[in-house]
Amino acid sequence: MIDLIQTVKRLRANQGVSDERFDMVYPDPIHRLSTAHWTPVRVARRAAELLVTKPGTKVLDVGSGSGKFCIIGALPTEGVFTGIEQRDYLVELSRSLAQRFLIERAHFIHGNMMGLDWSEYDSFYLYNPFVENMYDEASQIDNDVAQTWFCYEKYVHTVRRKLLQAPAGTRVVTYHGFGGDFPPGYSCVLREPIGSDKLDVWVKD
Question: Among the residues of 75-119, which ranges form H helices?
Answer without folding.
Answer: 88-100
